[in-house]
Amino acid sequence: MNIFSRFTLRTLQKNKMRTLVTIIGIALSVAMFTSVTSIIVSFQQYLMNMEIVRDGTWEGRMIATNEQCIQDISKDKRVKGMTVMENLGFAKLGDIQNEDKPYLMVKAIDDSFTDYSPINLIEGRMPKNSSEIVLSKHLEYNGGVKFDVGDTLKLQVGTRYYAEKKGDKQLPVEMEPFQAGETLKEKSEKTYTVVGICDRPVSEDYSAAGYSAFTKKGEEKARSYDAFLTFTQPKKSYDILEKYTKTGAYTTHQDLLRFMGNSTNDRYNRVLYSMGAILIGIIMIGAISLIYSAFSISLSERTKQMGLLKSIGATKKQIRHSVIFEACVLCAAGIPLGLAAGLGGIGITLHAISGLMGKLWSAGEKTKLYLVVTWQAVLIAVIVSFITVLISAMIPASKAVRIPAIQAIRQSDEIKLRGEKVRTSRLTYKLFGFSGMLAGKNFKRNRKKYRTTVFSLFISIVLFVSATSFSAYMKVSTSGLGREEDYDISCEVTEPKDGSKTVSEIEKEIEQIGSVDSATYRKEGCGEIEVPEEQISKEYLDYLEETDPERINESKKTVVIAVQLELLQEEAYQTYLQEKKMDVSKYMDTKSWNALVWDGFSVYCGKKIKTMNILKAGETDAQLLIPKAMKGYYYSMHEGSDYVYLSDEDNGEKRISAAEAVKKHPIHLGKRMTAAPPEGVANSQWNEAVTIVLPYRAADDKVFDNMANPMPYTSFALMAEQHEKACTELSDYFENQLKDSSASGSIMDLAANRDSNQALILIIDVFSYGFIILISLISVANVFNTISTNILLRRQEFAMLKSVGMTQKGFRRMMNYECMLYGFKGLLYGLPVAGGLSCLMYKSVAGGLEVKYIFPWQGMAISVVSVFIVVFTTMIYAMSKIRKDNTMEALRNENL
């Protein structure tokens, strides 16, 4: 160790407080860098694990291909692993209620299959031979056919065909939905014993013509094959599959590849890494500010020492190495502390929120969020931290080495007088007396020292307000993606065909379930209304002219718009009207059809979400357009002046004029509502339609007879504090009581979805406030270090003032003025810049969502109060140290 290194160590030991604060600043910075990199890696691994639990480890899949393609791809060295599912054929079950899924799809697998694609057993076990089978629970609750473990199943397994005009055409296995008129051929009889029941497998496509059934591979010849593959180069999975799939189809596991960073669509990774880069950038600004201030003050104090060293032959290189050595010593102490604090803190945080993560996704309950430490993440944190310290040290060092030796010894660059007089205002003298005037003159004579302090306050204000704005927009981005229903459970009930129970009776029976607090019901349907063009908002008219100009009838001066029709239970509707102080008789009268209206929807316009109203303000008359039913056809769409119907048999198209296809009924669009709709009424943000509400008895009107799109369901909105228990009891009610009356029902637990959203917001709060607290600590340490060191370096100056008679009261006045000067200067520069950064964040969020600008008044108010608290507290601490000094000793000592 050379003389310069020993000299640097002695300087660090001598200034223990400044050294300690600098080490703490480095440790905080490293902790935050480590936290950011570790969070990114941990969340990426969590999402990968969750996707594997939900959908398997496969990266590419060949579907319904032949044996030759399987053999060819298995020889490719880029294939890391592979399992093959044999498609044995389809078997028809006569009792299946779902007309679009009349088959069982029999598939043969081996023991390795579940390593690639999960099969979640509910009861029983996996098959051990080719005469055993596992059935999907989906067959029971969707198809209405129930089998128990131990049942024997005789099947005629064959290949699907459907007839065309010229002969028969074989349908690819699993690749086409069921079509009326198709038949099974090449059948063979097979007997299976049911040994297990599983959840609906993820390998089964939602449009598949049958329900999955799994047996063990045997000697039976497969009709086609599905291959599930992993690759040594996952990013090339698409190219590999395209090369070898000669028949059938192929797909890639896009979600898994995206989380692995191997997707061709790298939007997810860009968002993740760009957010990490923004956070690291903010932390670097705070860290450089803190560490720069420490080194700047240290070098300012040691300027005379450096001048003396230069005068006896020290080179610029030796002095620069001394500064770098000081940075390395501080890093050696601060970086390990920061790594330990960052990894420990984020590990505890991730463990604490792991339970909340399970509420966000169904697969999350089986996947734990834990800290993942990779050497790459730690190395990035260490390198970024070390570079930050070096930048902070080299900026002031490069200035110090350029000062000539004589100038450094005399310290003539510290105080510079301007051409104009060094004046202070009369108000300063009146408020703070001679001491305040002296502080003001000193500030003007020695701006360089004070500039460092003001800069520290400026950076602290900018960082804190930016962090609070970042947190606010993160919450807006999360909560602004959809509107939440204000009820707990939604269920749809098909009314009994035999008329044995009315909707009102079903509602009363549901309310008698102990865990259900209240229930309301409604019918809902989609349709169209014809509105005068002058009642359409200009914004929506412009939008229609670009996207669907055929809806505008120039000759009639009308516009056809989509409508969401809600027929609400009379008691609930009447209560709502009374609560909102509306005209009950007007809106409950079904003869005149006066409707309450909810308007407004959101749509993606380019890369931005735009919200607009369809109608202008005010009431208006309109015509409800109801397409008629046509035998053998179903209504498809409204295209220009024609209504398009498709055949039930061969998808043949028939176009009918509006006059022939539509029944019209006058409707009055009443008050435009801004308040929340009645409990249970759907008002989707993403539905390009006007929501109108009428009383339930309007459903009895003959205008709804012979509708092309009837409303067979009655939707119930339930309030239930114990929503999970209520869902279970409702399921029992539907299965045991409604089934006997030929009715059926489905249930959706909306309260569970709401819990997921609240968990997500809580997680964002945890990370946001954790980030704000750490940024605040860096900012406080920065200000404390800068102000306290500057004050302590002025011991000789204060001793001289004492020697000429300045009292303690005079010192307090001078320091109070300096504190106010620091605070106001920092706020004057910091608040506008922080507001500007907040605007930039708003523009970034507004690029994807239509949100209002959130002025960061709360962060600014906290900053104003905190700045003066920190400044005055630091000043009191520093002055308490100086008060103990001996005046003569302080005057003698030139380097304190």
Spans of 5+ residues with little confidence (pLDDT < 50)? none
Query: How much strand content do the residues show?
Result: 15-25%
Q: Average pLDDT, to the nearest integer?
A: 79
Largest sheet: 6 strands, mixed, barrel
Count the beta strands.
Answer: 26
Strand order, largest beta sheet? 2-3-9-5-8-6
**Distance between the first and last residues' Cα:** 25 Å
Please state the overall shape, judged from the principal axes of the Cα atoms.
Answer: globular
Helix content: 40-55%
> What's the helix count?
25
Which structural class should the secondary elements be placed in?
A: alpha+beta
Radius of gyration of CA atoms, rounded to a whole number: 37 Å
Could you explain the architecture of this structure?
The chain has 896 residues and is α+β, with helices and mostly antiparallel strands. Helix 10 packs antiparallel against helix 21 and helix 14 (447-479) runs parallel beside helix 23. It starts with a helix and ends with a helix.
Summarize the SSE layout with pairings.
Layout: H1 3-14, H2 16-55, E1 60-65, H3 67-74, E2 79-92, E3 103-109, H4 113-116, E4 121-124, E5 132-136, H5 138-141, E6 152-163, E7 168-170, E8 183-198, E9 210-216, E10 224-231, H6 237-244, E11 249-252, H7 254-260, H8 267-301, H9 303-311, H10 316-360, H11 375-400, H12 405-410, H13 426-445, H14 447-479, E12 489-494, H15 503-511, E13 518-532, H16 538-547, E14 552-553, E15 558-568, H17 570-579, H18 584-588, E16 594-598, E17 601-605, E18 608-612, E19 620-627, E20 633-639, E21 642-647, E22 653-657, H19 658-661, E23 662-672, E24 690-695, E25 713-719, H20 723-738, E26 744-749, H21 750-792, H22 795-803, H23 808-846, H24 857-883, H25 887-892
Parallel strand pairs: 3-9, 5-8, 15-24, 16-23
Antiparallel strand pairs: 1-10, 1-11, 2-3, 2-6, 2-10, 4-8, 5-9, 6-7, 6-8, 12-25, 12-26, 13-15, 13-19, 13-25, 14-15, 16-24, 17-18, 19-23, 20-21, 21-22
Helix pairs in contact: 1-10, 2-7, 2-8, 2-10, 2-11, 2-21, 8-11, 8-14, 8-21, 10-11, 10-21, 13-23, 14-21, 14-23, 14-24, 21-24, 23-24
